[in-house]
Amino acid sequence: MLLPRWFAEGFLLLLSILACSDAAFIGVNIGTDLTNMPSPSDIVTLLQSQQITHVRLYDANSHMLKAFANTSIEVMVGVTNDEILKIGRFPSAAAAWVNKNVAAYIPSTNITAIAVGSEVLTTIPHVAPILASALNNIHKALVASNLNFKVKVSSPMSMDIMPKPFPPSTSTFSPSWNTTVYQLLQFLKNTGSFFMLNAYPYYGYTTANGIFPLDYALFKQLSPVKQIVDPNTLLHYNSMFDAMVDAAYYSMEALNFSKIPVVVTETGWPSSGGSDEAAATVANAETFNTNLIKRVLNNSGPPSQPDIPINTYIYELYNEDKRSGPVSERNWGILFPNGTSVYPLSLSGGSNSAALNDSSLFCVAKADADDDKLVDGLNWACGQGRANCAAIQPGQPCYLPNDVKSHASFAYNDYYQKMKSAGGTCDFDGTAITTTRDPSYRTCAYTGSLNANSTGGNFPPNALGPVSPLGGNANALIISSYHLPFLAPLALTLLQLLLQH
């Protein structure tokens, strides 16, 4: 029996509402344009330790998707802007993309959404005419794989497609994009998906020439005389974030679409900026994200849609220090590239919850690192880097196994644990990597390990290690043994005898 059209549309609307009826979530974007990117497994371990349930990837990196296998984390993957033209023109390309990047990982990896491009209309406008075709081709490929009810498809849009977002009640999409946006909204309605919005109060504040107070952008309470009210609806807006989301709802309504949920795929605040970016500070970033989390987790929608929670992804997990542009572009992360927290942040919104931190990160030598480079790194760490290398001396807990990778790992980690708060990195000319696995073993406790004090792994802060009676740093004698294996036993025996007298 063929169901009436109104029944099918009503069923899809119900699905979309139910999809957003659960408790609102805070997710996080994971950019990769940074030096010394942590391994996928370490990233997943960090996310799990902080009970982060949703992440957005900007592509469909196979290593990341494999790392998310057998976790409960919901993953949004991305079709890159460079892939849209081919996928929009050729259904076979869309099918191949879905088979390779989605179907191949489900059900082990919990992929629940596909973001087709990022801010396509404003960054690559020449692709806009084919965006709807790309969305439809991806959806049809999901249908063919019987994944269309599990995986939703949409395309993140910039606030720039709404040229006048305040007051929200009069907001409309730019007329130049009406055809493409209408096609997008029709697709979202037909498939029970959601409108993806990148909403940045930071830019709303910095480009408004003082019209809005900073407190309004930071979710801070405003005095009665400064409260923001929509003159047409008399709705009060306690934050610019809410006003931006409502602007999207009213813009959709202007095209006769309603009840398509808005999911904020990007929002955040930079912690540092150039001389002309005075609002980009650690204090403002911490305030914004802390208040954002509390706002989202109260499970309410914006004033015009109070019953539709605003699921939100924070931009972003790491500072992407390789990005070009203003200083602020490299400082949106809640973690530095070396894994340390930019500021304390509880992603669960509770004051008693553990804040996102890097206390479980260690720095170790890469398994495939060149031995000569490891020797150089070890020399630097125990010398100029002022790492405490006493534990890797003969007879000490971390001396065995007596090989350069083991000794370099201990020295690298000691330096990293002591210097990361001051910007020290875990790189050492590409020979080091961070890990969440505690590298301690037997009686050798690495600096930063929970057992370090009880097992003697954390030695008194003698930055250069024990001083040899022969002069200089005793570590240098051990290091030289990696290059001179024939003389190593003799040198080490002499060293032990000297240290006994």
Automatic annotation (TrEMBL):
SUPFAM superfamilies, sorted: (Trans)glycosidases (SSF51445)
GO terms of molecular function: glucan endo-1,3-beta-D-glucosidase activity
Keyword Disulfide bond set for record: yes
Subcellular location: Cell membrane
SMART domains: X8
UniProt cross-references to InterPro entries, sorted A to Z: GH (IPR017853), Glyco_hydro_17 (IPR000490), Glyco_hydro_17_plant (IPR044965), X8 (IPR012946)
Name of this protein: glucan endo-1,3-beta-D-glucosidase
Organism the protein comes from: Arabidopsis arenosa (Sand rock-cress)
Lineage, top ranks: Eukaryota, Viridiplantae, Streptophyta, Embryophyta, Tracheophyta
